[in-house]
């Protein structure tokens, strides 16, 4: 059994071929897609975060709106770039969205992906020491993880406007249990091990920033195992969660075929990213019977408890609901995911 959700990058463009021609379009359609996904039995609505781009960028108003319109589905991000974040303000926003949703927030965070602008975090007011922006992201993350636990740390004013409770003051509001629902988007085996040591869940996408020559799904399965070993060695209680992302398009009608026939022979790709080799996972497109055979051999999907389906959001809500429904109806039962 797996949790199956969608991951939307929230692209928008004024092109007449796009169903999302403005930021308002993509925001309202993101909410509508989450509501519809819950109605057909999907388990999660996740949103990518990019700055300086015609994509979703400010996740917490959207997550709060989705939380208010739904009742069961998990809501989350995949991922928030921590180089850009004020961790205390983020803690307030995250707790607020989580409380509105009734504790359904699954927050994916990370060092972030290659940026649209040069050192964009600098425009947000953050400059890393010695130029180490990855260390700055980890520092922001550490502070965020500490303050969302609800412990007091701020010295109260002896003459406040309103009476204070005794002792040091925490960030408010506090949402109990949120700390256990934080995920780290890891692009390598080493960062997955770090996530396990920190006691965060693991979020792994269709990109790994390394290449060992083995198929993508096998390298990702090794990443997952190293994460779980690191979690256990660190002495964290319970079992961590793991999600993987995939582009999966069952071809069940002529519209599907028109959109995705080019992906029916997709393969892994190897390229350069941030000055090093990277391996990109293939897309899965084809007749349901063939996809069942191919997906059954994907070792990383087998190792994960959560599968996030990347959706072509510019094709509109109705078509993306069709894609999700096709996976839930034609693939999930045959693969034992349902």
Question: Could you name the key traits of this structure?
Answer:
338 residues, alpha/beta, TIM Barrel, three-stranded antiparallel β-sheet, 37% helix, globular, Alkanesulfonate monooxygenase SsuD/methylene tetrahydromethanopterin reductase-like flavin-dependent oxidoreductase (Luciferase family), monooxygenase activity, Bact_Lucif_Oxidored, oxidoreductase, monooxygenase
In short:
The protein is of the alpha/beta class.
- Element order: H for helix, E for strand: EHEHEHEHEHEEHEEHEEEHHEH
Rg over CA atoms, rounded to whole Å, is 20 Å
Task: Report the helical percentage.
Answer: 25-40%
Order of strands side by side in the largest beta sheet? 1-2-3-4-5-6-8-13
What is the CATH superfamily label?
Luciferase-like domain
Integer tally of domains: 1
- Span between N and C termini? 5 Å
- By CATH, the topology is TIM Barrel
GO molecular function: monooxygenase activity; oxidoreductase activity, acting on paired donors, with incorporation or reduction of molecular oxygen
Keywords: Monooxygenase, Oxidoreductase
Protein name: Alkanesulfonate monooxygenase SsuD/methylene tetrahydromethanopterin reductase-like flavin-dependent oxidoreductase (Luciferase family)
Organism: Allobranchiibius huperziae
């Amino acid at each position: 059994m797996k949790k199956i959700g969608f991951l939307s990058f929230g692209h928008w463009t004024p092109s007449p071929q796009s169903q999302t021609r403005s930021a308002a379009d993509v925001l309202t359609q993101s909410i509508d897609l989450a509501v519809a996904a819950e109605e057909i039995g999907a388990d999660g609505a996740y949103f990518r975060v990019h700055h300086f781009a015609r994509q979703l960028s400010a996740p917490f108003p959207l997550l709060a709106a989705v939380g208010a319109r739904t009742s069961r589905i998990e809501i989350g991000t995949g991922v928030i770039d921590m180089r850009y974040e004020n961790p205390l303000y983020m803690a307030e926003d995250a707790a607020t969205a989580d409380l509105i949703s009734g504790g359904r927030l699954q927050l994916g965070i990370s060092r972030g992906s290659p940026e649209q602008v040069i050192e964009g975090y600098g425009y947000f007011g953050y400059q890393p020491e010695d130029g180490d922006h990855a260390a700055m992201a980890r520092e922001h993350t550490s502070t965020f993880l500490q303050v969302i636990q609800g412990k007091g740390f701020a010295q109260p004013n002896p003459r406040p406007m309103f009476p204070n409770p005794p002792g040091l003051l925490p960030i408010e509001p506090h949402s109990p249990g949120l700390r256990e629902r934080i995920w780290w988007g890891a692009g390598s085996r080493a960062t997955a091990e770090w996530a396990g040591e920190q006691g965060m869940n693991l979020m792994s996408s269709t990109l790994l920033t390394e290449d060992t020559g083995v198929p993508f799904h096998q390298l990702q399965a090794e990443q997952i195992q190293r994460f779980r070993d690191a979690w256990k060695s660190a002495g964290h209680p319970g079992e961590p969660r793991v999600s993987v992302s995939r582009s999966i398009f069952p071809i069940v009608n002529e519209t599907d075929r028109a959109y995705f026939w080019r992906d029916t022979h997709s393969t892994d790709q190897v390229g350069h990213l941030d000055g090093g080799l990277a391996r990109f996972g293939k897309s899965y497109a084809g007749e349901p019977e063939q996809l069942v055979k191919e997906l059954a051999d994907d070792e990383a999907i087998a190792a994960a408890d959560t599968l996030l389906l990347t959706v072509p959001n510019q094709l509109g809500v109705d078509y993306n609901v069709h894609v999700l429904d096709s996976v839930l109806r034609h693939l999930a039962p045959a693969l034992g995911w349902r």
